């Protein structure tokens, strides 16, 4: 079986960035047990091996360093920070909305406070395309749509909006050099089988040779990005991004409706599609229907471009799962 995690590291470390900037520095990654955080840790390890950079990697998790909602107990001077910690499960967004808000707001505030105290050289805060709310069309970073404050699930996009505001305020008031990454849904090699998002549910249907079941009509348009592409974007922002600015991170070629994605997989892997809409989708944590496409011109001007398409995302994820 092809080791796609190794291939991803080769791709990331081969991107033409000024990697020597990170030499002999300390990099803190919060949420390092998650998909993106763990990919960043692997990439930093690969950078050390490939370029002999002597990067000190602090992989922050609840088990190793405590609750992100409490002041960070990091005694080493952090030069760079990737803030990846967040609650991203839709089920938790409707069952524990207050915890979602607390983790996002308190965690981001604690990271920014640490960056202020240590005088960090660069910080990247992971936000989400969900900050755009319900809005249609080509979306640039200066646009915002409607978020229904009566829907408990809105705890996630609203907390991400407030997290971005905290970043901007820390930059404005304390000159903290923070950049914001508004991420499309990210997956690929390394995605755990326990993931419950729609792309993972589709992948499990492919793996088990069972029907793909749509619990909505599938009209909502999705934006996606392969994990290695997302990581190269985050490093690009860390080393080249403008402080106090937000950047969309997505592969525009993967933008399609949920129904179109299901049909793409059904055609490639020979499974059927069944529509079974439950009576109350709000309680299941489904995001409201959206029809936007993330514009990536802003980050493209920094020299970043995605390499992998949607089928690559699935093939590499399923290969790691042992399907292909």
What does this structure look like?
The termini are close together. This protein is of the alpha/beta class and 324 residues long. Strand 1, helix 2 and strand 2 form a beta-alpha-beta unit. The strands form five sheets. The chain has a six-stranded parallel beta sheet with strand order 2-1-3-4-6-11, sandwiched between helices. A two-stranded parallel sheet has the order 5-14. The chain has one domain: Rossmann fold (3-Layer(aba) Sandwich). It is built from eleven helices and 14 strands.
SSE class: alpha/beta
H-E order: HEHEHEHHEEHEEHEEEHEEHEEHH
Distance between the termini: 8 Å
**Please, what is the average pLDDT?**
94
Bulk shape:
globular
Strand content: 15-25%
- Named at the architecture level, the CATH assignment is 3-Layer(aba) Sandwich
User: Into how many domains do the coordinates divide?
Assistant: 1
Which residues form runs of ≥5 with pLDDT under 50? none
How many helix segments?
11
The tally of beta strands, per DSSP, is 14
Structure in a nutshell:
The chain has about 325 residues and is an alpha/beta fold. Helix content is about 40%, strand content about 15%.
Core attributes:
324 residues; alpha/beta; Rossmann fold; two-stranded parallel ribbon; 11 helices; 41% helix; globular
